[in-house]
Amino acid sequence: MxxxxxxxxxxxxxxxxxxxxxxxxxxxxxxxxxxxFDIEILWLRPIRPIRKAKRKGGLSFYYAGKYYKAVxxxxxxxxxxxxxxxxxxxx
Length: 91
What we know:
Layout: H1 3-6, E1 10-13, H2 15-18, H3 24-29, H4 31-36, E2 41-44, H5 78-87
Parallel strand pairs: 1-2
C-alpha cells in the first residue's frame, strides 16, 4: 500500500444520487467543493452498463458489468468520463 493512501480522505460518488442531473459533468463541476473538504480519493460507484443475462433478482447488481470499456448512457459518454478523470489531479 502506498503510504499516502493510508491517511487519505476518500469520498464515494454514486453518480445517480450525486445531483439532480446525475452526470459526470455535475461531478466535475463540483471538484473544487470536494477539494475544499480535503477529499483526496474519489471512489466512483460502478458506472458501466449492467448486464441483464444471468443476474439474480429483479434489481441489477452494481458490479455485474456488461461492458468494461463503456459507461452507462444516462451518465453521458466515455469522453465525458475521461474529461472528469483528467480533471481529478486538481484534487
